[in-house]
Amino acid sequence: MRFFQTFTFFGNSHLQSQQLAQQCQQCYGLALLCEVTAPQVLAKAYDLVHWFARTIARAGSSEGAALRQALAQLPPIEGAVRCYAPAFTAKRHDALSAEDCHLVRFAADGAIVVVSL
């Protein structure tokens, strides 16, 4: 079975992805990364928490207008999914694009791996 995915631990060279994988294995006692049921959800949540923390720090407030403005002014962030440079702008409100979608499949061990075209 093949499907689209925006993240996999396997073949991912982002430092934050590798650190997240290591932390996940240590914290939850996982022998294999393929034991992570929804790696894309984990990685996106990880990135989102980092964006949100930086946004609040930059805004100096939790008010919506201040957060929107600060979010559009964040410096590049190296995330688990990708490097967001920038994550958002005043006109672009989606951090991911079509280039971030990959055709993947399940390997024999259950790992989600990118399909070579």
TrEMBL record:
InterPro entries, A to Z: Peripla_BP_I
Superkingdom of the organism of origin: Bacteria
Record protein name field: Branched-chain amino acid transport system substrate-binding protein
